[in-house]
Amino acid sequence: ELKNTHKFIGWASSANGATENEFIASGNFMQIFAKTDFQDRNISYTVKIQKTDGSYTENTETKTGKIGSIHTVSYANPDDNVYQNPKYSTSNLTVNADEAQNKVVITINRKIYTVKYEVKGYNSSIEDKTFLHGAEHGEIDEKNFQKDGLEIGKIELDGVEKTKEEIKNFTIVKNHKIT
Question: Which residues pair with 92 in a beta bridge?
Answer without folding.
Answer: 72
